[in-house]
């Protein structure tokens, strides 16, 4: 598996985690838990943005990774 494939797979996993944290934040009854889930979702969102940028960089620098 190429580096680009690994990064894209990681990105897909992070999107799923972000989605699950959002659902947990919406469904939590305890305000402290709701806040913790929401803050975790925001952190994952920032990491996701960094990885999306990295994918673009990989595709720009290594054209063979584009679309894979």
TrEMBL record:
InterPro entries (UniProt xref): DUF1657
Source organism superkingdom: Bacteria
Protein known as: DUF1657 domain-containing protein
Record organism: Neobacillus thermocopriae
Upper lineage: Bacteria, Bacillati, Bacillota, Bacilli, Bacillales
């Amino acid at each position: 598996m190429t580096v680009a494939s690994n990064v894209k797979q990681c990105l897909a996993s992070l999107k799923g985690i972000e989605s699950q944290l959002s659902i947990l934040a919406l469904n939590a009854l305890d305000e402290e838990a709701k806040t913790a889930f929401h803050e975790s979702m925001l952190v994952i969102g920032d990491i996701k943005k960094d990885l999306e940028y990295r994918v673009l960089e990989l595709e720009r620098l290594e054209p063979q990774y584009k679309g894979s």
